[in-house]
Design a protein that fits this description.
9-stranded mixed sheet, two-stranded antiparallel ribbon
Length: 432
């Protein structure tokens, strides 16, 4: 095996695989899928089972390891870990406005719709056949990666020896509107907690919002900053250390000059680093589709945007508390973010699409024999605890650990402990 790089306690090997864009037309257009294989230095000559990591998202490349630490450290004690760049991300064939530019809007929509969890799992099966000689392997999914795990258990359970999920058990039956109605309520609670913890945050955000509303303010990336865009920073308040990072950003947003208070160029530079919409367009294009299935017989139709009307407190008015939004996608993204503007028409076509395929097979999951262990975070802002518990009752052989110790990104903050806990539950064949 050719080792491509040596990190702190890790050796890394790069793999590229060719897969069909459309598995219904296997001889048609091909995509390149990148996988980084890592193993601890002390185990590099051993034949170890594979653990495949499915990244959160959709639309984000796999974690780039720096050293043997966190969940990777625990995994490398007994596995070779495969860090999969899901199609359209990382070093896999990219999907963005430049790669789609040669297609019509309808062709773009047809193309983008091949980048959901069903094809991510099909890609994994191509890789398993070539890299693991069709031997079953273990999988781990964080957030949206957990949605991929449930798809894998539905479509190819024979490929799996065990599965682990952190902060990512989806509803198998509920529509997007149900999901967002629950999500807005959790975001309201996170806002209340944020303003309770940081006593001057309300005055800081009010001053900033009013300044943005009354002045033309442009980000370092060229976009005009709007109050609605400012509210998007709330995507961070559901993460461990996210509220702190947001507060410190707001704290230095304005400063005094001889002409009066004005916006800080440092804030304008750092703002865009808190949001991923320009750099990860799949997230904006396909996020709502992860809640769409054939039996719904309807599209998402900008679900988060429509459901927001039921929560008018999120519509900022001067003199009232500004409420941050969360992991919601709005149609105006494709009018305000520079890298999304060329995708406005395709985004509308995807939002209206109603003939999505089913992602999960409840009948298969009811009979599941693959050991599954999951961490469910009771305070999770992004994945509703109650819906996760509903699903847990429909997946046979699933054990879960329900905890309030962590936010959604717990695996990033204390991954070694969390994965060790899940592996221990699996080994003991625990019953919830």
């Amino acid at each position: 095996m050719q080792i491509d790089s040596i990190l702190s306690g890790i050796v890394s090997t790069k793999h590229f695989f060719s897969v069909p864009l459309d598995y219904q037309q296997p001889e048609g257009e091909q995509l390149s899928i990148f996988v980084r294989e890592i193993v601890s230095t002390e185990n590099q000559d051993l034949s170890l089972p594979y653990l495949v990591y499915f990244q959160g998202g959709p639309g984000f490349g796999a974690v780039r390891p720096v050293e043997n630490s966190g969940w990777i450290k625990r995994a490398l004690k007994e596995y070779r870990v495969l860090l999969l760049d899901q199609r359209g991300t990382g070093l896999s064939s990219l999907l963005n406005s430049a790669t789609l530019a040669h297609l019509t809007a309808q062709e773009q929509a047809d193309y983008v719709c091949h980048f959901r969890a069903d094809n991510i799992v099909r890609d994994a099966e191509v890789i398993r056949a070539q890299l693991a000689n069709n031997q079953p392997w273990s999988i781990l999914g964080q957030s949206f990666g957990g949605f991929c795990v449930l798809r894998y258990l539905s479509a190819a359970p024979q490929a799996l020896t065990e599965a682990f999920i952190t902060g990512g058990i989806p509803s198998l039956t509920r529509q997007a509107d149900d999901v967002y109605q629950a999500t807005y309520k959790r975001v309201l609670a996170k806002n209340a907690d944020f303003y309770h913890r940081f006593k001057d945050a309300e005055s800081l955000t009010a001053e900033l919002a009013d300044y943005i509303a009354d002045n033309d303010v442009y980000l370092a990336t060229g976009e005009k900053l709007t109050v609605e865009m400012l509210q998007l920073l709330g995507v961070n308040i559901g993460m461990e250390q996210g509220p702190e990072a947001l507060y410190y950003l707001l704290e230095q947003a304005m400063f005094d000059t001889a002409q009066g208070r004005t916006i800080n160029p440092l804030f304008l530079h750092q703002f865009s680093q808190f949001l991923d919409y320009n750099t990860n367009p799949i997230f904006a294009l396909l996020h709502e589709s992860i809640y769409c299935q054939q039996f719904h017989q309807q599209g998402a139709n900008w679900s988060a945007h429509r459901v927001r009307e039921q929560f008018p407190k999120f519509n900022y008015q001067q003199g009232q508390r500004l409420l941050f939004t969360g992991e919601m996608i709005y149609p105006w993204f494709f009018e305000q973010f520079n890298q999304l503007k060329p995708l406005k028409e395709v985004a509308e076509l995807i939002a209206q699409k109603s003939d999505w395929s089913n992602l999960y097979d409840v009948d298969v999951l009811l009979q599941n024999t693959v050991p599954v262990t999951a961490a469910i975070y009771s305070e999770d802002m992004y994945v509703d605890m109650n819906y996760s518990l509903e699903t847990a009752q429909l997946v046979n052989n699933l054990s879960y650990w329900l905890t309030s110790e962590y936010e959604h990104n717990g695996i990033r903050m204390d991954g070694e402990h969390i994965l060790d806990k899940l592996i221990s539950l699996s080994r003991k064949d625990s019953i919830r």
